[in-house]
Fold these 2 entries.
Entry 1:
Amino acid sequence: MRETRSVWILVAILVVAGGAVGLFTVDAGSTSPEPVNFDDTISMGISLQSQYALEDDVELPRVQVFYSQYRYVVGYYGVETFVDAQQQPNHEQRFGYPLAVYVSDYSGTDLELTDEGYPRTDRFGGWTNAEEAHFVVDSEARTPAGETVIPFSDRADADAFADEYDGTVLSWEAVLERTFDVDTADTVRQRVDEQRLDADERVAAAAELRDRPESVVVGEDASTIQEAVDEAPANTTVVVPEGTYDENVVVNESITLAGEGTPTIHGDGNGTVVRLNADRAAVVGFDVTGVGNTTRDPDAEIETDAWDHNVELGYGHGDAGVAAVDTSGVLIEDVTIETPANGVLLRDSPDMVVRNATVNGSEEWAEGFMGVMTMRSPGVIENSTFRHGRDGVYMHRSNGLVVRNNVMEDGRFGVHVMHTSETLIADNRVRDQELSGIIVMTGPELNAIVGNDVRDTPGGIRTAGSNSYIAGNVVVGNELGMTTAAGNSIYEHNLIADNDVGLQASSIVPSNRVVGNDFVDNDRHATASSGPLRIYTHDGRGNYWEGAIGTAEGGVLDRSYSPTDPVDQRLHRVDGTPALARSPALDAVEGLQGTVPGMRAGSVVDTAPLCEPANSELFADTDWDPDDYACETSVNEETS
Amino acid sequence: MNGETGTGTATPTETEHETGVGERATPSQSHVLETIVRRELQTVRRTRTFLLLGFALTVVLLGVAWVGGGVRGGYVPTAVDLLTPLELLVPIVAVAFGYRAVLADERRGELDVLRTYPVSSWQVVGGAYLGRAAGLVTAVAFPLVVVALAVALTGTEEVRIYATHAGADSPILFARVVVLTILFALVVLAVAIAISAVASTTRSALALAVVALVVVLVGADLAIVYGLASGFVGDSSLVYTLALSPISAYRGLVLETAVVVASGTGPRTAAPIASLLGLFLWAGVSLAVATVAVRRS
């Protein structure tokens, strides 16, 4: 009996030991998930605007990736977008390694290229495992973002395509090693100065319109402005002496309408007061009143098959002080507009310049409309003031628009970005908006928001889209200072002070670089919405967080700071927290928290907080003195 | 720990009578061992402090996993959160379980009683070790199983509109941590048993226990760092030298087999075979020392 029992005990021990050893021999990481519907992935690599504009039978190459430590399936438009992403530093640290990668399969899809080089197919060819696929590079194939790689499951199809469209067939390993010219937030950062210079040039070119020879003087050569405008030959100036003119004016010729001593054009309270219908027309030096109050014209003639016809119907056909439609290179300068609808309306009028304008809208934003409404009309809007009304500047599909040095006060949004990529929104002063200072919607990309000063709004700078550059902004006294909803983006050198919540980590993809920002005197420096742990450190440097503790070396504190941690978040406000935060128990718990960040839920960690503000020049126009936060001071306080 | 309850009159003879196999003049070796193990188990069961220890460990580990957010992240983040606390707490618990095991018998004269029977010193040590080990394994495994259940029952925070997958997270990886933690605990227990055999008074046992903890928790690692800094340990041999420090061997094994699997590539965190050998070496040498000490006393 004893022997039997001993045997049983021995067997039990062997089974347990065998099981324990077995745990280490099974491959725990080898789950290969099946591809999912691409619409269910978190996708990147194309703006909504470009996506909507594609013809139905265009089938862009796509990739879906299952990462080892990121719970969401990530989708990429363009194989090159994924390749570039996985070559970025920190990519593997944030996402882990790819457990499985699937690419669109073009084998058997009757593939041909459109005139733009976009792949056109008769159907979606399904997903194929990237490791077994064949890739055609350097061909004529394109996406809206540029050169693209076309994957095939069948080698013969890849060869045939490569022959026809002048490409080379590569394996997955070889594709992963290639570098592609993909536009990222870094591209935007490098572009900002150039874009400023381009805007200067555009403004200089527009300024020439002010020097056109005088041809007609109202009151001398003609009795009304309209009469004068109709008489004036192209490329001349119509002079309007001081006074009030009760009329609505239509300019159908490329002329400059110039006020002397700021005359007033007073419309009849219906429709637009000054309408420009000719290229390089200009309006300079007027007060404009008597604007109609229609903000939306239900009878407007709009192509209903355009994907954005509803947007155009809703925003593109209201009344305005000055409107330009189907023109290019117009100038609107030194005008002051009182309006219950739009101040300036620009539709299909690229290369326009609006400068030194003042628009006073309705006291109640819901009753008014846009300071400048620009639809498919990139150009420059600068040195202007927008008070009350709905949005200071509203833009739709105006890629490359520059909005700079303006003042926006008491509206709903200061700057409202819709379906517009590659903009430069710079050095604007935004105050007291009903909802938000600068707001980006609809997933655009490659936008730059730099040097703005946004205060006293519920949401200071709200971003969206991807590959954007948000830098050098001063965000003070807002309920929520800034969001990081734009992914793959750089948020750097901003001063975020005295907000209820300084920054909200809102992008679900941990792909943003948030460094060199100064967080001062916010109730909460940062919060995190859903998504994984974000590490706000790059190349060994993070942000300045008032209250962060630790020993400084090389300007960086040796202790991590987590604005979402219950103790750390109170460090700058609550007595006793600096002692509690130094508890070895907390250190023990937090020691390895940066490992597998992609598997952790909503939090923010800066592993190398700065010991003093990085942007002391931004403090100039605020109530704070950067010297109060300098390294020495904080160290002394800690040691005294 | 001072509440450790001796088994008093539970000498082998009586136990044998209780189990009704006392007729044999010379009990078999495995029988002797089993009897001693049983006696130890009784001690462990009767010592409330051990129960309290297990309970405290459960609360602490659950708390750490919760505060650290690992529970809401998955098995691997939880393992990462628990790793440092486990490194610190498991040796303490293990030492508490074992540092007076043999000593208590000796102090109460039970060792002398035992010596009147044909019991060899390895049986005394092995029995004490296995008996205490059973208690320790329970005390260490139970909290970890509770934490694993918490992870399983806590939904991860996610946005429903997107497709999700588990990634490289898996309960298997957590189970590996549990196994390695048990192994680590058993190694430290062996050290503690050696202390209990070497020490002659409770006070010296306590002092030795503290010394052992300092060596295991800090000393061995600092020695390796010193070796690395002074050039005594070469870069290429570091990963093997780590195996000599039980705490580093344990940490390396956990990182290598449970964490790196999920996070991706990088420098190797451990040489698993060397680390395992290192741990076995510590356990083996400690038990040998204990056996020699019992024989000599």
Entry 2:
Amino acid sequence: MKSKKVVYNSFIYIILIIVSITMLIPFVWMFLTAFKTTAETMQVDPFVIVPKVWQTQNFGNVIKAMDFVKLYANTLGMVALRILFAIATATLSGYAFARLQFPGKRFMFALVLLQMMIPVQIFIIPQYVMVSKMHMTNTIWGLLFPGIVTAFGTFLLRQAYMQLPRDLEEAARLDGCNIPQTFLFIMAPLTKSAMVALGIFTAVFAYKDLMWPMIVCPDNRATTLASALAKMNGQYQQKYPELMMAALISCVPMIIIYIFFQKQFIEGIATSGGKL
Amino acid sequence: MKKVTSKERSEFLWGWLFILPTMIGLIVLNIYPMIDTIKQSFYKTGDFGKGNKFVGLANYEKVFGDSEVWQALANTAKYAIVEVPFSIVIALLLAVFLNKKLKGRDAFRTIFFLPMVVAPAAIAMVWKWLYNSNFGLINNTFNIKVNWISDPKIAIFSIAVIGIWSVLGYNMVLFLAGLQEVPRDYYEAASLDGANEWQQLKNITIPLISPTIFFVVVTRIIAAMQVFDLIYMLIDLNNPAWKKTESLVFLFYKYSFEQSKKGYGATVVVVLLAVILILTVIQLIGQKKWVHYE
């Protein structure tokens, strides 16, 4: 019985390790290629794994060629604005939908659900037309635009407020708090973990998004990391060290943040169940 | 009675005030655009993207007769048929393995989830390099010569493999959350009755987490039908597999923004919406047969 269990457990470990290697190899290969010369990448010898001389200048060259400082500033700016807007608007509406009674509530909530169920591409053409009419193409406001409000965040925060006990609120009201005071001082601080989840979700979604920045910020200096990679992909063709260096530069900071806050990341994305 | 009325009045006032920013945003950014896109699908965009002419159902007739649209639908379906089942079955098995008290459980979870925090644009670039027919790691390691992403017969499946690799960890994390709800004593009782691991998986785990599986299947199919980033990054216009990999969203992007035919692009996306709705309704009906809610 015992030995059977050992065999079974080793079998599980072998599978988990094989899958782990499969998950990691692309990252390792990206890293190694980023420091090779183009000639080295074209050697048809699979056993040249590590670069002979680490081409650290690839880093500086790529950063300069694609102006990664600017790309990072754009991406960070957009992500920060989107998080700010998402949390501010969704906290308010989530609370109202969860805890306040008012006519028209059900219909308005149906609109929130409708937005969540519809593929985003259906909104894109008119959104783009609006942005271009307001002369916001190639600006950070254009990048922010579709993320000003969030149906998904509203839904997520509503769930969080619904799980809080009712007595808290009633006690606050009896103590003379009006609705905004109850919301701001008693209830909102209790939904911090839902806000963190929404913040992480918003950040990951915005950072990964490709189509919107390509459409609305075609200019290299105004766009995000993801959209700049797409451009570079077309221009650099077979120069894999440069391409891998760009990919590396664009994802390493996110990976480092993820490793430090993995619990919040995994739980934030999993509990929110959002579509990424 | 008067007190109740003032409470009602203040809830009415504050309720609307609180939802107002979100609702104005949703109406301007989503509800109006949705109606506008549907409207646009009945119009033809003039040359250089200027001017709109009402053409009734002409765009739809054109879409249904357009072999490129049918091919894109087939490509999208092929992608989804590979990506969805494999990513779900593998993720479910991994979740079952990790649900045991194993050493290094958290490390495995962290590794599997990693692709979820990386932009698909970067992932696609790395895989394009791995798949490279002359110098790619895959062909070199196995000493083969497969044109992974330029052979029209297999390119879409190679892309689906990247899709599986990317979402595996995400699906697994959702399953792990579902598995936490299954009481441990069920398994102990089953072991005492002599049920092996496979029987436990089939008779306990899967029925008990069927609501989670259902949620993952529905959301994965919706997401897979919208595949764009990977294909856009991997396939350029010189690629011989281009026609056999174009997805519906790719086509929407091409028509609407590269060729400025917004009316026709809108029609393609409305068709996509219809396809997704039909698939979702079928699943909602079908779930009664296999999803067990407590």
